[in-house]
């Protein structure tokens, strides 16, 4: 048998720290390695696999569309693209009715920044400390972590970072030069930190007052993850631009920028574009995934299981735990020490896959279809590695 782990490591770019295993298959909230060992997957493709791995409805839609038509640029209208737009804008808040389809999260943010500059004629962006918005030049400019940003400077500017949840600092930062304020309703990569209602509401108010736009980045929080279809529903705040990706396509690499008429109309014809974005194959996957989430009300499942899961994690009586926080099935356990050794032990000793969120947090982003019995096993595993 080929040593796929060695081959991958030899030829890989080397930017990732890798687990010492080779995964070959997934179903629901479980994945299997090449030796047949079964894992409970709380990585969930970094929060992509909301409908479960290889969801049968999504697989069927992809199979049918692959046999029909895979690629069609946006100059040529497509029935699948129209259906995707209709499905998506029925789910987004009132007023968010225009869609630019993308192929990833960072592309959604990148495009949103261009739409914001075009619509406002302004240049400055406000981001938050510990924010994560992606890796390409525009989105990485709004990303807080220095090692993601500093080696690649000059990045896009001007960008001002304000402390997350600091209403006064935010109000002071937004002025007549500001094109947009960009916020994750729950910071993911930055440590699983929910926004306060006051912060998001102030962001909405001050952007309106100053003629700037509000961009909510729901790439990780969207599609049921936090216990609502979109996290903004927890806050009653509607942005001018919503950036989406991750869970939107049930595993298909894709994303979307959803915006108001006013924002979309501010972009000149030909001012933005994409070859792959809006292709019928991705559109079919997106329609199937959104329909599955809606029909099975997966956000309710996330709210119920997530609330229970966080309570159980909080009941683990360990001096190593600083805090358990999150919303729905977007959960972080912050330790008083580095989380990496515990993530490794969860995998090796208990066949539970988790991920980090900064140096000290164990993050859980399981498929929203996960069974309660699996989450019970995860709680037990965490209890044992912390003992
Ligand atoms: C993952 C993520 C991104 C970047 O998405 P990619 O598909 O990895 O480019 C941007 N913003 C947030 C909030 C994310 O969680």
UniProtKB/TrEMBL annotation:
<dbReference type="InterPro" id="IPR005814">
    <property type="entry name" value="Aminotrans_3"/>
</dbReference>
<comment type="subunit">
    <text>Homodimer.</text>
</comment>
<dbReference type="GO" id="GO:0006526">
    <property type="term" value="P:L-arginine biosynthetic process"/>
</dbReference>
<feature type="binding site">
    <location>
        <position position="132"/>
    </location>
    <ligand>
        <name>pyridoxal 5'-phosphate</name>
    </ligand>
</feature>
<feature type="binding site">
    <location>
        <begin position="105"/>
        <end position="106"/>
    </location>
    <ligand>
        <name>pyridoxal 5'-phosphate</name>
    </ligand>
</feature>
<dbReference type="Pfam" id="PF00202">
    <property type="entry name" value="Aminotran_3"/>
</dbReference>
<keyword id="KW-0028">Amino-acid biosynthesis</keyword>
<dbReference type="GO" id="GO:0008483">
    <property type="term" value="F:transaminase activity"/>
</dbReference>
<dbReference type="GO" id="GO:0019878">
    <property type="term" value="P:lysine biosynthetic process via aminoadipic acid"/>
</dbReference>
<keyword id="KW-0457">Lysine biosynthesis</keyword>
<comment type="pathway">
    <text>Amino-acid biosynthesis; L-lysine biosynthesis via AAA pathway; L-lysine from L-alpha-aminoadipate (Thermus route): step 4/5.</text>
</comment>
<dbReference type="InterPro" id="IPR053513">
    <property type="entry name" value="Class-III_PLP_Aminotransferase"/>
</dbReference>
<feature type="binding site">
    <location>
        <begin position="217"/>
        <end position="220"/>
    </location>
    <ligand>
        <name>pyridoxal 5'-phosphate</name>
    </ligand>
</feature>
<keyword id="KW-0963">Cytoplasm</keyword>
<dbReference type="InterPro" id="IPR015421">
    <property type="entry name" value="PyrdxlP-dep_Trfase_major"/>
</dbReference>
<dbReference type="InterPro" id="IPR049704">
    <property type="entry name" value="Aminotrans_3_PPA_site"/>
</dbReference>
<dbReference type="InterPro" id="IPR037537">
    <property type="entry name" value="LysJ"/>
</dbReference>
<dbReference type="InterPro" id="IPR050103">
    <property type="entry name" value="Class-III_PLP-dep_AT"/>
</dbReference>
<dbReference type="GO" id="GO:0005737">
    <property type="term" value="C:cytoplasm"/>
</dbReference>
<protein>
    <recommendedName>
        <fullName>[LysW]-aminoadipate semialdehyde transaminase</fullName>
        <ecNumber>2.6.1.118</ecNumber>
    </recommendedName>
</protein>
<keyword id="KW-0032">Aminotransferase</keyword>
<dbReference type="InterPro" id="IPR015422">
    <property type="entry name" value="PyrdxlP-dep_Trfase_small"/>
</dbReference>
<keyword id="KW-0663">Pyridoxal phosphate</keyword>
<dbReference type="InterPro" id="IPR004636">
    <property type="entry name" value="AcOrn/SuccOrn_fam"/>
</dbReference>
<feature type="modified residue" description="N6-(pyridoxal phosphate)lysine">
    <location>
        <position position="246"/>
    </location>
</feature>
<dbReference type="GO" id="GO:0042802">
    <property type="term" value="F:identical protein binding"/>
</dbReference>
<comment type="similarity">
    <text>Belongs to the class-III pyridoxal-phosphate-dependent aminotransferase family. LysJ subfamily.</text>
</comment>
<dbReference type="InterPro" id="IPR015424">
    <property type="entry name" value="PyrdxlP-dep_Trfase"/>
</dbReference>
<feature type="binding site">
    <location>
        <position position="274"/>
    </location>
    <ligand>
        <name>substrate</name>
    </ligand>
</feature>
<keyword id="KW-0808">Transferase</keyword>
<feature type="binding site">
    <location>
        <position position="275"/>
    </location>
    <ligand>
        <name>pyridoxal 5'-phosphate</name>
    </ligand>
</feature>
<dbReference type="GO" id="GO:0030170">
    <property type="term" value="F:pyridoxal phosphate binding"/>
</dbReference>
<feature type="binding site">
    <location>
        <position position="135"/>
    </location>
    <ligand>
        <name>substrate</name>
    </ligand>
</feature>
<comment type="function">
    <text>Catalyzes the transfer of the amino group of L-glutamate to [LysW]-aminoadipate 6-semialdehyde, generating [LysW]-gamma-L-lysine.</text>
</comment>
């Amino acid at each position: 048998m080929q040593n796929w782990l060695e081959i991958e490591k030899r030829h890989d770019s080397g930017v990732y720290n890798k687990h010492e295993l080779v995964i070959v298959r997934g179903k629901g909230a479980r994945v299997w390695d090449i030796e047949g060992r079964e894992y409970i997957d709380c990585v969930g493709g970094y929060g992509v696999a909301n409908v479960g791995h290889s969801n049968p409805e999504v697989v069927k839609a992809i199979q049918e569309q692959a046999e029909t038509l895979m690629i069609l640029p946006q100059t040529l209208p497509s029935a699948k693209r129209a259906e995707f737009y209709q499905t998506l804008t029925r789910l987004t808040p009132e007023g968010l009715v225009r869609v630019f389809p993308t192929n990833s999260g960072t592309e959604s943010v990148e495009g949103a920044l261009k739409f914001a500059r075009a619509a406002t004629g302004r240049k400055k962006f406000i981001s938050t400390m510990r924010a994560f918005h992606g890796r390409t030049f525009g989105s990485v400019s709004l990303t807080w972590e220095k090692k993601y940003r500093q080696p690649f400077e000059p990045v896009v500017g001007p960008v001002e970072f304000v402390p997350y949840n600091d209403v006064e600092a935010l109000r002071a930062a937004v002025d007549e030069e500001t094109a947009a304020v960009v916020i994750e309703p729950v910071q993911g990569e930055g440590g699983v930190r929910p926004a306060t209602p006051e912060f998001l509401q102030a962001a909405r108010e001050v952007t309106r007052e100053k003629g700037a736009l509000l961009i909510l980045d729901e790439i990780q929080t969207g599609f049921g993850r936090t216990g609502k279809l979109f996290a903004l529903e927890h806050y009653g705040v509607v942005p001018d631009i919503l950036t989406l990706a991750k869970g939107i396509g049930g595993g298909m690499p894709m994303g979307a920028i959803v915006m108001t008429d006013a924002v979309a109309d501010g972009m000149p014809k030909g001012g933005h574009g994409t070859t792959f974005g809006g292709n019928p194959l991705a559109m079919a996957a997106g329609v199937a995934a959104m329909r599955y989430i809606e029909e099975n009300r997966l956000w309710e499942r996330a709210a119920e299981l997530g609330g229970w899961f966080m309570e159980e994690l909080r009941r683990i009586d360990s001096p190593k735990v600083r805090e358990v926080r999150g919303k729905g099935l977007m959960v972080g356990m912050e330790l008083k020490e580095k989380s990496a050794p515990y993530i490794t032990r969860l995998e090796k000793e208990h066949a539970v896959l988790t991920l980090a969120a900064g140096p000290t947090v164990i993050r859980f982003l399981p498929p929203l279809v996960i069974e309660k019995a699996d989450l019970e096993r995860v709680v037990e595993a965490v209890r044992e590695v912390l003992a």
